[in-house]
Design brief:
The complex is a heterodimer. Chain A is mainly α. Chain A starts with a helix and ends in a 6-residue tail after the last helix. Chain A contains 21 helices and two strands. By secondary structure, chain B is mainly alpha-helical. Helix content of chain B is about 75%, strand content about 0%. In chain B, strands 1-2 form a two-stranded antiparallel sheet. In chain B, strand 1 and strand 2 form a beta hairpin. In chain B, helix 7 packs antiparallel against helix 10. The radius of gyration of chain B is 21 Å and the shape is globular. Chain B starts with a helix and ends with a helix. Classes of the chains: A mainly alpha, B mainly alpha. Chains A and B meet through strand 1, helix 5, helix 6 and helix 7 of A and helix 18, helix 19 and helix 21 of B.
């Protein structure tokens, strides 16, 4: 089974999605159960993926390779290492709450809703599993179509504006990456990512390629100043769309930097790392302030996502700052570890927070903070979860949010005191905007009559929030298995990232 | 005796044209005696003629190497074989989609099919042209048939205006083409493209530059490339939609062949000149086509400007000036024809008696009225935009690849930026169909099962060729050396 485990992970949800689509809206009861079973089965397939993963090597595992376009040396090539494997598990995990959360909430065209998310899941896993650049790009772009439809069909009042903005921003970023990938193919005659990583490139070439990657991945992360699509997309997207956007799609930007930008254009990265560090710090601090003044819960969490993703890009590019400052790469792995843990953790926490907002929205049909107040009085169990996820968002020790931020700040000390001082501001800012949100929504006296009539979580909502809370705590208390899985791949990446690829 | 047998046998590669010329006479007679009593019968016969023609082409014209016939005026090679099959297929699909539309407008007449078949014969002559005379014969046979098709709806003033415009400008372009050809003849003393190719070697001589200029202008006109594109939106908009579908598809195959035979083969020695001239034409087509398409409210006009932008991409393949570039242009052309057939097919199916679905707003909420039609259109639009997993993505990828191979950094950048601009108006169609609510007043779409099935296969092909692009990519690279 290991020979085609990754293919199963990709095509099982896609096949299930097509089945649900064909069953149509009339057989939606069957469609729902098929969706749930398919997502659970996908997660179940991740169990052997995790257990049989060899944590002592940085090489690709569960490798598959079949001819795709022989004339242009493009292969259907799959494989995972310590960087992509946790993200695949995260994808499989986070699609389940999306399906459950939609159960009785999505009334318009539910079959298409489930089908979109199932197809999306397969494509996202494909992005992380592809070891051929063309296949990667194929999945990367194809993913835009279901998301475009999800926001456009099931979104809020300004959904059309938001979804077209989302599509065009990401499309613009991606086509430059495509141009860079084809350029490298023309140079080395292969689309294998490993071949790209081994390809010697002059500094000028690397700068161009890095610029192309930066446009593609910065939009996806998103980094300041190309983040403006995200608040719009999040606010207008249905709950499930926000969860997948925040939990998985943003991670693809970070993954892209780790898989493409650093190993393929290391010298350009070394020359331009300061730019990324500055943009990351702006995201962390400036966007943190922006989050503080938001009136809309989803928008606040969206801005908080941008700030948290700033930590990811900071952690990734610290390797060059550390190299510059200390002359060694000692401690650089810690920054990348932090970035990876932060990606996983942010996927869980932001997803959970969007689900919390969804729970409230389903009952009150408003996301304005001012319309709430004292939710704890009528929804005590929900309030407990919301407070937990909010604290995790601020980086409370014992939750997954702490591990990533702590590792990144620790690593940044080795690079530059000011980096860490500025990055640490997030601890205050995140605490301010998140806790203030909680204070205004959850605590205090009952805000109005509608809040007074709220009912607490039903079983379905309890299960998904409870499961996510358990994972958030598990990663926070015992991150060692995750770090162990990533270890060799991160070490290998650090070597690649500081290598000199300029031909002599 | 044996010699004449040999001659007959050696005519094998020309069977498509010979057969088609005979079949056209047959269809004309059939229309005169049977078709007038039973409208629609001629259409069925025409489809049969095309099917048999495709079969005969496979049986006789599937040559493995280059064969030159008729004293060097005619060439049959694997490329011609592939293009002719594509011609049969796309004309058959176009006629199939058009039927209900023609009936609803009471222009379901046998002459329509005769003209379509003579246009196809013109296409074939162009595809197999190996002499300036044959080229011109093909160009005019195709163009004259198409002019009449545009004017086919006698009652429509707009169509007459479009046909007039097309005819006048087309005649001008033909004149320019002839003038360029005459200079080539004057320089080389031959009409044969092989001998011209051997003779033209000094690219910078004034005569060659002059000849190439005239020929490039004429070719750009035929393709509808900027700045010689002005006829195209008016004709696309003014012609009956079934004719728009026709001129938007099969003739593109012929004009691809025209560029290939005339410039890439005959004037290969002057490729420095014509690639340099084609470059601004390609860039302008990309920019003008994509930007102006955004401002359109009529879907036929929008698709016309989108055609101009796709022509820009096809010309970029020629700008590369390599076999790989021509193969990419061929692939782009075939993909473009496939997707165009589908998208104009949707426009035809959405139109009813007394109602032209030619405004973009007529597609509002199409999803609610006809989910399958909307799904097909969405797939076709994403394919035009170049988003995987649809086949249009590979077409763009191939063009970018050959531009890199010939080190055209700026053309790559313009091409990718313009494909993003283009994505906007394709997305707008999807938005109208899926995100907007339908006004109550729109009539239901055409429900003819056979046509819908064909359209379904058309859209499915766009997906299947997108997921498994290798066979078609391979074919295109193989037939061009």
């Amino acid at each position: 089974m290991h020979d085609y485990l990754l293919s199963l992970l990709i095509w099982l949800p896609i096949a299930a999605g097509i089945v649900v689509l064909l069953l149509g809206e009339r057989n939606i009861v069957a469609g729902r159960w098929i969706s749930l079973i398919a997502t659970l089965a996908t997660l179940a397939l991740c169990v052997p993926l995790w257990l049989d993963f060899n944590t002592h090597t940085a090489a690709y595992q569960f490798v598959e390779k079949a001819a795709w376009i022989p004339r242009f040396h493009a292969y259907y090539a799959l494989g995972v290492d310590g960087i992509s494997m946790p993200l695949i598990v995260l994808t499989a995990l986070m699609t389940i709450p999306v399906v459950i959360a939609a159960w009785s909430v999505i009334k318009a065209r539910p079959a298409q809703y489930y089908a979109s998310f199932l197809i999306m899941e397969g494509l996202m896993i494909g992005v992380f599993a592809a070891t051929d650049a063309l296949l990667f790009y194929f999945f990367w772009e194809a993913m835009l179509i279901p998301m475009f439809l999800i926001i456009g069909i099931w979104g809020g009042p300004r959904r059309v504006y938001a979804t077209i903005k989302f599509f065009l921003y990401t499309f613009l970023g991606s086509v430059f990456m495509l141009a860079a990938l084809i350029y490298m193919y023309v140079k080395c005659g292969s689309y294998s990512i490993a071949a790209f990583q081994a390809l010697p490139l002059t500094l000028a070439e690397q700068r161009w390629i890095f610029a192309a990657f930066l446009i593609a991945f910065a939009v996806k992360v998103p980094m300041w100043p190309v983040h403006t699509w995200l608040p719009d997309a999040h606010v207008e997207a249905p709950t499930g769309g926000s969860v997948i956007l925040a939990a998985i799609m943003l991670k693809m930007g970070g993954y892209g930097f780790l898989r493409f930008a650093l190993p393929i254009a290391p010298d350009a990265c070394r020359h331009l790392y300061f730019l990324i560090v500055v943009l990351s710090l702006i995201a962390v601090i400036y966007i943190g302030f922006v989050a503080l003044v938001q009136q809309d819960m989803k928008k606040l969490i969206a801005y908080s996502s941008i700030a948290h993703m700033g930590f990811v890009t900071l952690g990734i590019f610290l390797v060059y700052a550390i190299l510059m400052n200390t002359g060694t790469t000692h401690g650089a792995a810690m920054g990348m570890d932090g970035a990876m843990v932060q990606m996983v953790s942010h996927g869980l926490i932001s997803g959970a927070l969007f689900l919390c907002v969804g729970v409230l929205y389903d009952r009150m049909h408003t996301r304005q903070i001012a319309d709430y107040g004292g939710v704890i009085n009528t929804m005590p169990v929900f309030a407990g979860f919301m407070v937990l996820f909010a604290l995790a968002n601020t980086g409370l020790p014992g939750t997954s949010g702490f591990v990533g931020e702590f590792l990144v700040i620790l690593a940044s000390f080795r690079a530059n005191f000011w980096y860490s001082a500025l990055a640490a501001l997030t601890l205050i800012l995140a605490a301010s905007y998140t806790l203030w949100l909680v204070k205004r929504v959850v605590f205090g006296p009952v805000g109005n009559d509608r809040v007074a009539k709220l009912t607490d979580l039903n079983g379905r909502e309890f299960v998904i929030l409870g499961a996510l809370a358990a994972v958030v705590l598990l990663v926070g208390i015992w991150p060692a298995p995750l770090l162990k899985v990533m270890g060799p791949s991160i070490q290998h990446l650090v070597h690649q990232a500081v290598a000199n690829k300029i031909p002599a | 005796m044996s010699e004449s047998m040999m001659t007959l046998h050696s005519l094998g590669p020309a069977v498509p044209e010979i057969y088609l010329a005979g079949a056209i006479c047959l269809v004309l007679l059939f229309e005169a005696f049977v078709g007038v009593k039973r409208p629609g019968a001629t259409g069925t016969l025409a489809l049969l003629v095309l099917a048999v023609g495709a079969g005969l082409t496979v049986a006789f014209a599937d040559v493995t190497h280059r064969v030159v016939l008729f004293d060097g005026a005619y060439v049959a090679d694997p490329l011609a074989f592939v293009l002719k099959l594509a011609g049969f297929l796309s004309v058959a699909v176009a006629l199939l989609y058009s039927r209900a539309y023609l009936r609803n407008r009471e222009i379901l007449k046998g002459e329509y099919y005769v003209l379509a078949l003579t246009a196809l014969l013109g296409i074939f002559v162009l595809i197999s042209a190996n002499s300036l005379l044959t080229v011109y014969l093909g160009v005019e046979l195709l163009a004259l048939s198409v002019y009449s098709m545009v004017a086919f709806d006698r009652e429509s003033g707009v169509a007459a205006e479009a046909a007039m415009k097309y005819f006048v400008l087309g005649a001008l372009a033909s004149g320019i083409l002839l003038y360029g050809m005459s200079i080539v003849y004057g320089l080389t003393g031959t009409l044969n493209l092989d001998r011209i190719a051997a003779a033209v070697s000094a690219p910078d001589s004034l005569g060659v530059v002059l000849a190439v200029t005239f020929i490039v202008v004429a070719v750009a006109f035929k393709l509808g490339a900027v700045p010689f594109h002005m006829w195209l939106p008016d004709v696309y908009e003014g012609a009956p939609t079934s004719v728009t579908l026709f001129i938007g598809t099969a003739p593109k195959i012929a004009y691809f062949a025209l560029v290939l035979r005339l410039l890439a083969h005959g004037l290969a020695g002057a490729s420095v000149d014509w690639t340099r001239m084609l470059m601004p034409i390609a860039v302008l087509s990309l920019v003008v086509g994509n930007v102006v398409a955004i401002a359109q409210t009529n879907i036929k006009r929008m698709l016309a400007y989108s055609t101009i932008s796709h022509v820009g991409f096809i010309v970029l393949g020629f700008v590369a000036g390599t076999a790989s570039g021509y193969a990419a242009a061929l692939y782009y052309t075939l993909v473009y024809v496939l997707v165009s057939l589908g998208s104009f097919g949707v426009v035809l199916l959405a139109s009813r008696k007394g109602f032209e679905a030619d405004q973009l707003s007529d597609y509002k909420g199409l999803y609610r009225r006809d989910p399958l039609l909307a799904l097909a259109m969405a797939m076709l639009m994403f394919s035009f935009a170049g988003v995987p997993p649809f086949v249009g993505f590979w077409a763009k990828l191939r063009i970018i690849q050959v531009l890199w191979e010939s080190s055209h950094l700026w053309l790559v950048i313009i091409a990718v930026i313009m494909s993003v601009v283009g994505a906007f108006y394709y997305l707008r169609v999807v938005k109208l169909m899926y995100f907007d609510d339908a006004p109550q007043t729109l009539p239901p779409t055409e429900r003819s099962v056979g046509v819908r099935f064909a359209l379904g296969i058309n859209a499915a092909a766009v997906l299947v060729l997108g997921v498994l692009p290798a066979p078609l990519l391979d074919l295109c690279a193989r037939v061009i050396h």
